[in-house]
Amino acid sequence: TSRVAQHHRSVPDGWLPSVKYLIEELGVDPNLRDKDGYSALHHSAARGDNETILYLVTKGADVTLISRRGQTTADLANSPEQRAQPHPFTIALLEKLGSKNNHQCRSCGG
């Protein structure tokens, strides 16, 4: 992993000022992915962080990226893990922005 990719991996911990620093000061590509194919948008979606999602999109982040596991950004907002709850407002935002929702919520029951 390159140094830039290592810095970009701090984005999942989610502070908008950190994301802004990485993109605006260090010039990190907002579409950079980790080893599993997840982008900063995927990680922001999993947290329901709409503010960071909107910022990343203004900086050129692609909402249609798919991870190596076949997960879209909307899929991550839709609780891909049993221990997490879905983020309905984030799902709606990502769908509006063009992300596909595969409706694979594991914590929704049924």
Automatic annotation (TrEMBL):
Keywords: ANK repeat, Repeat. The keyword Transferase does not apply. It comes from marine metagenome. Gene3D superfamilies: Ankyrin repeat-containing domain. Pfam families: Ank_4. InterPro entries: Ankyrin_rpt, Ankyrin_rpt-contain_sf. The keyword Repeat applies. This is Uncharacterized protein.
